[in-house]
Amino acid sequence: MKGVLLVNLGSPDSPEPKDVKKYLGEFLMDERVIDVPLWARTLLVKGIILNTRPKASAAAYKKIWWDEGSPLIVLSERLQDKIQEQVDFPVALAMRYGSMTIKKGLQELVDKGVDEVFLIPLYPQFAMATTETILVLAEAIRKAHFPQLKIQDLKAFYNNTDYIEVLSNSIARHLEGKDYEHLLFSYHGVPERHIRKSDITKSHCKIDGSCCATPSPAHEFCYRHQCLEVTRLVGEKLNLKEGTFSTSFQSRLGFDPWLQPYTDRTIERLGKEGIKKMAIVTPAFVSDCLETLEEIAMEGEEIFHEMGGQDFTTVPCLNDDKAFVDLLSKWINEWATSTSIEA
Ligand SMILES: C=CC1=C(C)c2cc3[nH]c(cc4nc(cc5[nH]c(cc1n2)c(C)c5CCC(=O)O)C(CCC(=O)O)=C4C)c(C)c3C=C
Ligand SMILES: [Fe+2]
Ligand SMILES: [Fe+2]
């Protein structure tokens, strides 16, 4: 029997510092997230970050936590439930980090008689720190615990025409009647080094003004190219005028150069330049989470107001948007009948 495993990032079990510390420990010790030698990662994570960050992160989580739990988990569960309504075989949900493990998700499917799994990383763009770490871990778990299981994965769908339409329609609907002057597309950042490491040609990605716009096989795994493409394609679909929309990268951690421009500095600049009404959309996240609800909707708005801005509108993530549910269900049903997906 066929089955589906949706995989998102994960959240702590609660917004208390001890649970946040446990979650961050697992997350940041992942060699595809903080990609330095084990000794340096251990020193950085266990010696520095885990002694300072959990308290501040827990305070941030408390601001956005819902009665039902972490928004990211609750919204992913709603997505799972709605997809299940349109699919005749089991749909399970797992998280890369935290208690809802990939092993438990695969076990749940196997217990229901599944022997062929469609693995869906809930990220439109490929990144070493998100999609790749899910695929590598899922394969290791398969080999060790479920060697009979076949697993196929959904490729990054950042430039899929239907996805761009669903995203564009959602943005248009949420911004209807709002006369914003600038629409900022803010994506989660990654260290520049991650982009170079994922370059299969080893020479294409220069992280400059042109490499991501010059066709290359490297783009299949280039997070920066894929983010810039989402902005370009949505801009085209919504007929946005040049200069009224742009791309930035948020949530940087540490002192290495991350993808630029940074979102907080961009919001600051737009405010300083006299923009009074701005809107912001976060297409690297399928589900609203700490990074969208706190860092963007709260901190971002505060920065904008401090710089003289007045209206700051955040577009929700696709979450359990009907058209998005329909699209994922369509891909799943296509996989179930043809076992191959066209991007
Ligand atoms: C080196 C550190 C990090 C990399 C690289 C990174 C990449 C990355 N992350 C997401 C999506 C999410 N990240 C979230 C939270 C979060 N991310 C980092 C660090 C890196 N992320 C930290 C330390 C945290 C925890 C919060 C904090 O302390 O600030 C979340 C939200 C989780 C939630 O519970 O709500 C998401 C989602 C992507 C897409 C990405 C690379 C493309
Ligand atoms: Fe992150
Ligand atoms: Fe590039």
Question: What's the gist of this structure?
Answer:
With 343 residues, the protein is α/β, with parallel strands linked by helices. It is built from 11 helices and 8 strands.
Give an overview of the whole structure.
- With 343 residues, the protein is an alpha/beta fold.
- The protein folds into two domains: 2-157 and 322-338, Rossmann fold; 161-314, Rossmann fold (3-Layer(aba) Sandwich), CATH 3.40.50.1400.
- The protein is built from eleven helices and eight strands.
- The model has no long low-confidence stretch (mean pLDDT 97).
- It comes from Psychroserpens algicola.
- Pfam families: Ferrochelatase.
- It catalyses: Fe-coproporphyrin III + 2 H(+) = coproporphyrin III + Fe(2+); heme b + 2 H(+) = protoporphyrin IX + Fe(2+).
- Keywords: Cytoplasm, Heme biosynthesis, Iron, Lyase, Metal-binding, Porphyrin biosynthesis.
What does the secondary structure layout of this molecule look like, with pairings?
Layout lengths: L1 E7 L8 H12 L9 H27 L6 H14 L6 E5 L6 H10 L4 E6 L6 H18 L4 E4 L7 H15 L6 E7 L3 H6 L25 H15 L7 E6 L12 H10 L4 E5 L8 H17 L4 E4 L7 H17 L5
Parallel strand pairs: 1-2, 1-3, 3-4, 5-6, 5-7, 7-8
- The level 1 CATH classification of the largest domain is Alpha Beta
Mean pLDDT across residues:
97
Bound molecules: the ligand C=CC1=C(C)c2cc3[nH]c(cc4nc(cc5[nH]c(cc1n2)c(C)c5CCC(=O)O)C(CCC(=O)O)=C4C)c(C)c3C=C, fe (ii) ion
> What's the number of extended β-strand segments?
8
Content of β-strand? 5-15%
- The assigned structural class equals alpha/beta
Tally of helical segments: 11
